[in-house]
Amino acid sequence: MAAGVLEFAMLFAFGFSWPFAIARTYRAKRVDGKSPYFMIIVLVGYACGIAAHLVEWSKLWLCWVYLLDMALVSTDLTLYFVYSRRAKKKGAD
After folding, report:
1. Handedness of CA 62, 68, 72, 77 (dihedral sign)
2. What angle do CA 72, 77, 41 make, to 5 degrees?
3. Spatial contact of 18 and 69, defined as CB atoms under 8 Å apart
4. Are 34 and 18 contacting, i.e. CB atoms less than 8 angstroms apart?
5. Which of 21, 48, 49, 72 stands the most exposed, by the fewest C-beta atoms within 10 Å?
6. Vertex 87 angle, CA 69 and 76, to 5°
C-alpha cells in the first residue's frame, strides 16, 4: 500500500505543474523554450506506467492518475502545435 501512495504522490507532484505550464502557454500564446520531444517522452513514460500496472494487474486505480497527467501533457502539447503553427504562419506573412 505504501508503494501505491508514494507513486500517487510522485504522479501528483508531476501533474501539479502542468496546469501552470498550460496556463502560461495559453496566456502568452507563445511556445518559446518548450520542447515537443520532451512532452512526447513524458507521455511515453506515463503510458509505460499504465502498462506496468495492467501487466501486473495491481494498483489499477493509479491508471486514472496516469491518464489525468497524460491529458494535461497532451493539452500542453496541443497548445504547442497550435501556437507554433500560428507563429510560423505569422512569420511567413
Report:
1. positive
2. 85
3. yes
4. no
5. 48
6. 5
- Predicted structure pTM score: 0.89
Q: Which residue has the higher pLDDT, 56 or 1?
A: 56
CA–CA separation, 62 and 14 (whole Å): 14
Which of the four pLDDT bands, split at 50, 70 and 90, describes residue 10?
A: very high
Supply the DSSP symbol for 58: -
Measured distance CA(31)–CA(22) in Å, rounded: 10
Sorted by sequence, the CB contacts under 8 Å of residue 74 that are 6+ apart come out as 43
Enclosing H/E stretch for 11: helix 2-28
Comparing C-alpha atoms, which of 80, 46, 76, 79 is closest to residue 64? 46
In the chain, the percentage of residues whose pLDDT exceeds 70 is 98
pLDDT tens digits, residue range 34-50?
Answer: 999 999 999 999 999 99
